[in-house]
Each structure stands twice: as C-alpha cells, then as structure tokens.
C-alpha cells in the first residue's frame, strides 16, 4: 500500500504533505460532503426512485464521502434499491489514519469499522466489497487515468473530489474529464467543491453542461453539471 505522508491540524483534519492540501473542509468536512456531493448531485432524492444507482468518485481519501453517503443511503434507500459506490485512489491511507480522521463523527464509527474490516484485502487494481445486502464498494487502487480503464461501468453521479486543482492538476486534466464523461450514464451528473475556470472549461469541452452554484463554508462557489441525455457523437 502506498504511503501518503500526513500531518494533522489542531482540529484533527488530515493534511496531505504530498499535495499540500487538507483532505476535507476545516469548517465541517461532513457538512461539505452533504452540501457539495450529495445535494450537488440531487441525492438522496434521485436514488429513492431507482432500483440501481452508481456513484463514481475521484479521490477516496479518508472515505468520508463514502461513509456519509452510505449512512444516508441506509436511511432513505428503496426496499429494492442497490448502490454501487466506485472510487479511485492512487495513494490510500492506512486504516488507523482513516479511523483517526473519522473520530469527530462517532455515529459513523460502525460503518467505518465495517469498511475497514475489508482494508487488509486492499490490493492494486480493482477491489470489490459487499458492504451490506444493498451496498457495494468498488475501490480502484491505481493512478486515476489507469483506474478508469479498469472499470467498465457508467456512473449516475460523480463526486469530483481530488486535491485542489492548482496542487493536483492531473486529477482535473482535459483527458481525465473526457474519461469521466465516457463513464457517465446519459443524464448523469457531477458535483465538485472547486469552481476553477480551467476545470469548468475541461468539463464543458468533454461534453458536460456545467453550472456554478453557491459553495460550502469559505468557498463562494462550486460547480455541478450533467451529461445530456442525447450527447453529440464524440
């Protein structure tokens, strides 16, 4: 497993020394997940009327997005619903680092423990774990461009959650956004905390319709968008 060098803020927020950025909002990481990624993709309302929902994520990080999504899913999912959560991570954290990062939210502990019960199985490439009867986590440990090639599915919603574009530009490149577009179902959506102009342009050039909307915490804006139901040929 790749070592991701960390430091920790006074509020126990993990900080990547490799990418010179925090893993989530210092204001409220869990609140950011709810506002940016769930609300930004119209969730949980969209999955409440579906039998199959696939969420894709660029950057698993601490697993906070997955855990909060899983929590909300268990509370609102339809009786016949199934969730596939597919996340791409090149530099996975250690189990004890994930536990420490999730400590501020004790109501996520049980779900976190269940997730980490699988962590010793993590290997390079495609990892598929059944978390409960209606929830599957697919964790792709690879450089994200290589990882997209390993997964043949299509996401109904994307969480674009790489480190800050200025510090991790490869995670937001034009080529990668075209790959994300190709792995998005018609009518599928995305949301991201960033509103950087060049990221918006890369998404638009890939074929997405992009909107700038109010952000979370100290961020004035974020972006959301969707793939047209009938996109023009690439």
Can you give me a brief rundown of this structure?
This protein is α/β, with parallel strands linked by helices and 234 residues long. Helix content is 28%, strand content 28%. The protein contains seven helices and eleven strands.
- List how many beta strands DSSP finds: 11
Average pLDDT figure = 91
Tell me the count of domains.
1
User: What is the name of the CATH class?
Assistant: Alpha Beta
According to CATH, the fold-level topology is Rossmann fold
Strand content is: 25-35%
Judging by the overall fold, what is the CATH architecture?
3-Layer(aba) Sandwich
- How would you classify the quaternary structure? single chain
Q: Largest sheet, described in full?
A: 8 strands, mixed
The ordered H/E elements are EEEHEHEHHEEHEHEHEE
Within the largest sheet, what's the order of strands? 6-7-5-4-8-9-11-10
Extract low-pLDDT stretches.
none
CATH superfamily: Vaccinia Virus protein VP39
How is this structure best described in words?
There is one protein chain. The protein has 234 residues and is an alpha/beta fold. The protein has a single domain (30-226), classed as Rossmann fold, CATH 3.40.50. Helices cover 28% and strands 28% of the residues. It has an 8-stranded mixed β-sheet, sandwiched between helices. Strands 1-2-3 form a 3-stranded antiparallel β-sheet, with no helix packed on it. Helix 6 packs across helix 7 (197-206). It is globular, with a radius of gyration of 16 Å. The N and C termini lie far apart (37 Å).
Structural key phrases:
single chain; 234 residues; alpha/beta; Rossmann fold; eight-stranded mixed beta sheet; three-stranded antiparallel beta sheet; 7 helices; 11 strands; 28% strand
């Amino acid at each position: 497993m790749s070592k991701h060098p960390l430091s920790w803020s006074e509020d126990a927020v993990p900080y990547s020394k490799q990418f010179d950025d925090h893993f989530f909002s210092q204001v409220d990481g869990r609140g950011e997940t709810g506002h940016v990624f769930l609300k930004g993709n119209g969730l949980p309302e969209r999955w409440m009327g579906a039998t199959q929902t696939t969420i894709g994520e660029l950057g698993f990080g601490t697993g906070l997005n997955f855990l909060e999504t899983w929590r909300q899913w268990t509370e609102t999912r339809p009786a016949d619903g199934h969730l596939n959560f597919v996340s791409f991570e090149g530099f996975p954290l250690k189990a004890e680092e994930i536990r420490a990062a999730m400590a501020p939210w004790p109501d996520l502990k049980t779900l976190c423990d269940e997730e980490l019960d699988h962590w010793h199985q993590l290997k390079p490439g495609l990892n598929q774990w059944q978390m409960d009867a209606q929830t599957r986590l697919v964790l792709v440990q690879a450089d994200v461009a290589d990882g997209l090639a390993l997964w043949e599915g299509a996401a109904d919603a994307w969480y674009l959650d790489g480190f800050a574009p200025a510090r991790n530009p490869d995670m937001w490149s034009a080529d990668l956004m075209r790959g994300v577009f190709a792995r998005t179902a018609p009518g599928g959506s995305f949301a991201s905390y960033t509103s950087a102009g060049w990221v918006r342009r890369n998404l638009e050039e890939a074929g997405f319709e992009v909107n700038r909307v109010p952000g979370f915490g100290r961020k004035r804006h974020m972006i959301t968008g969707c793939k047209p139901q009938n996109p023009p040929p690439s």
